[in-house]
Structure formats: C-alpha cells, structure tokens
Amino acid sequence: MSPVTTASHDQSSSPLRRNFQESVPLTSKELEFLGLAFALGESDPRWSFGPGAENALRLQRSLETIANAWGLSPSTLTFFSDRYLAFYLAINGVLIANDFPSISLSTIEKKEVLAIVDGLPNSLPRHHYGVGIDGIFDSFGDDRSLHILQIRNGETGIRQRELPDGALILDATSALPGDFNEIDLASRPWHAIVLDATSWGGPRGLYALTINPALHWRNPMPTLDTSMPTFGANYGLTMLAALQLEEFLGRDHQAIIDANERVREIVSHVADVDIAGKDTRDRLSLSFLYTESEELQRSLYADGFLFDSGSACSSSQLEPSHVLTRMGLLSHGNVRLRFRPENLASAEEFAHALIEKVEAERSRR
User: Fold this and answer.
1) Fewer Cβ close by (within 10 Å): the C or N end of the chain?
2) Pick from 155, 137, 95: nearest CA to 120
3) ∠ CA 165-210-277 to the nearest 5 degrees?
4) In sequence order, which residues have a C-beta less than 8 Å from that of residue 159 and are 6 or more positions away?
5) Domains and CATH numbers, the chain
C-alpha cells in the first residue's frame, strides 16, 4: 500500500502511448489526486497550497518517500519551485562557507550553473573538465577544488561512474534512484545535491536541495539568518511527486532498457546517424546528418508521434544542443526520446517511422 495514497490507475488506453517527450500531461488519476490535495488545503489565498490538518501526515510521508529513494535524510531536504535558485543557494552557500582555491566543472553543465559560475569573482580560478565522444568526463584537475558535477546528463542519459576525489556539489537533476549507490555517495565529501522531480516522471517546477549537515554551508542571500531560506514549493506538487516516484520505483525497468536497445539497433543501420552514449535506460538522443529537427518533428507529429529535440535547456526553441557539440557529435537533425511504460509498445513503430521520415527528407535535398 502506498504511504501517500492507496489509489492506482490503469493507463492501458492512455493517449501517451506515442508520446516520447521529456514531460507529459498528468493522468486522470494524478489530476484527481492533485485536486484532492488542494481541496484539503488551507483556504488562505496568500498560500498557493497549505498543508491542512488531513494533509500534514501525507506531506511528511511524501518527504520520507523521496528522501528514502535517494538514501537521504528527510530533514535535509528543502523544496523550491525554481531550479536556478536551488543551484544558486548550493554553489554560493558552499563557497562563502569554505575556502576553495578554485572551482571545477564541465563544459556541458546546465545553463543556470554556467551562469552562476560566470558571475563569481574573477579571482576564483575555473577549471573545465574534458568530455569525450562517449560523454565521460576526464581531467578533473586539482582535488582541492570545489567540483560541480552532473551525475547523469538529461539529454543523453550518460552517467558519470568516476568522480573526482575533492569536495562535490552534485547535479542530480537527471539522475535516477540507485545512481548514488553506484558512486558510493556515503564515502564522498559532498556538500550539496540538487534533485529535479522530472527525473522520475514527477511534475515540473519542483526541485529539492539537500545540504550535507556534516559540512559547512551558509545562506548566501542578503539576510541576517544564515540558515536555509524557506522559499518553499507547492505542497500539492510535493505529494504528487512522491506518488509518481512510487510508481517509478514499481516499473518494469528491464522492459524500458529492452525498448531503448531495440530502437538503438534499428536506427543504427541508417547512414550518418550519431547515437549519443551507451546508456540504455529511459533516455536516448539521436542525430541525423542532412535532416532538420523541425521537419522531423512536424512530419512525425502528423503520424501521431511526439518527441523533443535540441537543447534540453531550451528545447522549445529547437536550439542546437551544446552537450552534443562538446561531445563532438551531430547537433542538428536531433531526436530526443524518453521511454516510459505507456510508450514502450510504440517504440519499434516509432523507430521505423523515424527512419522513413529521415530517408524522405534526405531524398528531397
């Protein structure tokens, strides 16, 4: 029985079966759950949502669900509705409370991270990791540095299995539960971790920041209070995220891996295609030479298929991916897929339709 809700839902007739986008609409049961959470909340219009007497226990169980899945303490989690703010508090809060000779990060970090680091004093040296065609970082630099590191890239799904030995701020916004076990997080000097609910299929606009209580951090905001600010996030979304995390943990993950591998194998026979990385879990990035992403999206949408393209930071504008560029891979004609139980049955059909559209577009050139 779920600690958040006892409800389950059947998605056998879901319209999401041909949707391979990063984010998808809420199911009818999720909407029902969210509506109930709001109905049981506070009536004070100054709050977007308040705990309410009946929701207090659910909220605590939701925090425990999320924290336990990541091997973290619920008391260390603070939720935010803005990803930039979460990273700002993590990076600047660690820097002003500690004395690091330099800061190290990769060139494929999120734009928010790059912007925050760019705004730091010029007196703090920067070191950038190298990144190979396989998406794996190298040249970590000085172990005395503060290292900002993606555990998993949100476009390619590539995981970093080797971490530097120095102090860490971990971008886990695209990581999956269990990834921390592979890097032996407990034995590493991590200062802060940022999570994103969308990594497990949760709602957009919900981010968690956890600070290591055994290490130093100080509130970088202009305030006399040095503790973590309670900007907060929508409580209803927090409980919904816990529900969706439970659903994620109960999935048949091998079926998702199998679908990813089948699509990879099918498209690998197409000429001039770059398949980013070798991670075969829920994400896949493909790029086809002599094609345009917008045209592929338009033609496949006419066949009922949805997918993302370009940079995950600004995919709505179809901007080329700086991640693929840094890896030395094609960045145009890009197709980004996210596999979930609802769309697995359409994975092979999508792969064959994609090849047909790629060949048709190339023939017109």
Assistant:
1) N
2) 95
3) 55
4) 151, 152, 175, 179, 182, 279
5) 22-249 (3.40.640.10), 253-363 (3.90.1150.10)
**Cα 270 to Cα 24, 265, 266, 352, distances in angstroms:** 29, 10, 8, 11
CA pair distance 38, 41, nearest whole angstrom: 5
* Distance in angstroms (rounded) separating the CA atoms of residues 93 and 116: 12
Beta strands 137-138 and 207-211: pairing type?
unpaired
Encoded tokens for 14: 């879901």
Whether residue 128 contacts residue 105, with contact meaning beta carbons closer than 8 Å, is answered with: yes
Cα(102)–Cα(120) distance, integer angstroms: 11
